[in-house]
């Protein structure tokens, strides 16, 4: 009986149905040249390790029984912990940002006082760094104003 599957070789003359003849066959399949080095599949040390085989067997058995592993992977635990910590930190920052009106007003006054103090320091530094003749001229003006005020009264 003819089969419906294209993989089964029902007619050996019909090579278009077989997947082996779709691509060119490599040279090493011919046994006529003994000098050719035949490729070998590399050994994966992880898959050949006894621990890996035992773990794989256990996972397959659990999957067949319908038992999902109860414990989460370590990476997933760490990522969830980081996310939780980040959310907590974000909430704390938002709480600090929400300050009362009194705190905001006090901060504004403190900034104004600091600014006034800086301006006073700048004026003092300018007066100290000024040349001697400017200082003498300022003193003469003050004494002249004091004398004028004394004569008026």
From TrEMBL:
Compositional bias (Acidic residues): 1-12
Keyword DNA-binding attached:
no
Q: Where is this region: Disordered?
A: 1-35, 61-100
What Pfam families has UniProt attached to this entry? Answer: DUF1151
Ordered alphabetically, the record's keywords are: Coiled coil
Q: Does the keyword Magnesium apply?
A: no
State where composition is biased (Basic and acidic residues). Answer: 74-100
PANTHER family, alphabetically?
A: DOWN REGULATED IN RENAL CARCINOMA 1/TU3A, PROTEIN FAM107B
The name this protein goes by in its record: Family with sequence similarity 107 member B
Q: What is the species of this protein?
A: Cavia porcellus
